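Hi everyone, sorry if this is the wrong subforum. Our group has a chain we'd like a structural model of before ordering constructs, and none of us has done structure prediction before. Sequence below.
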Amino acid sequence: MNVSADARSPENRPTGLDWEGWRHALARFAAATELCVSAYDLDCERQAGPFASSKVARLLATAGIWDEGRLGDKIERELAAQVLATGEAGSASAGDELRLKAVPLLVGGQVRGVIVYGWAFVTFGTPLGCERIGRLLGVNGARLWGEVRLESPVPESRMTVYTELLETMIESTVRHAEAVERLQELSRLREVFLASVSHELRTPLSVIGMRIDILLRGALADPEAIRASLINMKHHVNTEARLIEDLIEAARTRTGQLRMDMHPASLRDILKAAVSAVAAHAEAKQISLAMPELADLGQLPLIADPHRLQQVFWNLLSNAVKFTPASGSIEMRLHRDAQTYTVSVADTGSGIEAALLPHVFTPFTKQLKANAQGLGLGLSIARHIVEHHGGTIRVESAGPHAGATFHVTLPVNLPPATDAP
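Answer:
Right subforum, don't worry. Here is the predicted structure as tokens:
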């Protein structure tokens, strides 16, 4: 695997690793194989090791060959840099007998570091060979020979087995880290869920309770006050009902139980119904609502659940009205080709931050500055509905205060032709 220059550029650089777990795993690998093991990050800085298990490795560590500026440190860093540059395993040696290898540490298909291992003799050592290596590394040759002659060499065949064991350990550690990350994300979502639901469900109930208290404290004799309070309470009851319905539908999307009644339908009628549902709200905010001349477009036939698709477009238009300030504008555009319909909803509203864009369709994602109500479930449900129809939904935004555009693409699934009677 070759790592391109673009992949190594700062803007495409992978994020760092949590090295704590890797230190424990590599220490166990070193103890099991009696190899000396180290790990380097993307800057060729040692983040783990050297874990010296064999007598030879402990002697080298005591002599400080991996101290900064020493030859052992230089050899490992140069080998790590080579692996980072190529994305391929590499090898090096000190003299002819003392060998070491390195493999890329891959997470999610990306090189996130390098593991250097070995510092083992490939054949039985000799006194002269140990003297030569000792002079090279700054180690007492006689002491090195005293340790080497008591240990078995690690030939290439055994090193290959150790390499396969290391690669298996890397895969296992990556899976474990990903599982921990998923559990942490689930825990975070649970906390967000509990906080959002408790706040959003409590607010309408608090208003209703306040209105009831006002009535009980003396407004029962005032028909107009009663009427105003009842209208207000009805609004908040409807809000509460929508929140609960969102929770139920979000749960159904997670379990695959959201019902879809697919049959021949008209995209034109679906869009007209969605627009009519938000037109009054847009007019109240003096927001201009531009749309294609739906009456001139024909039926725009497709196989769909009209109620669910209307829910998608109502959600997009409703959000556009919510996030667009007074005197702003919203435009709906429709493009059709032989295979697809693409409906776009563009607004001049508050826009979406770049960091939030990848998470817009994730449950409980909200723009907290502008979205004072809701659970952040609408777009997640909309994506599920669109994908169930074989379509896609995506969003574009140039950033805060630059508006946003949502694109829904649906297949032109025409009903099968029937023979005339």
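For your construct planning: The chain has a mean pLDDT of 81. Residues 156-216 form the longest helix (61 residues).
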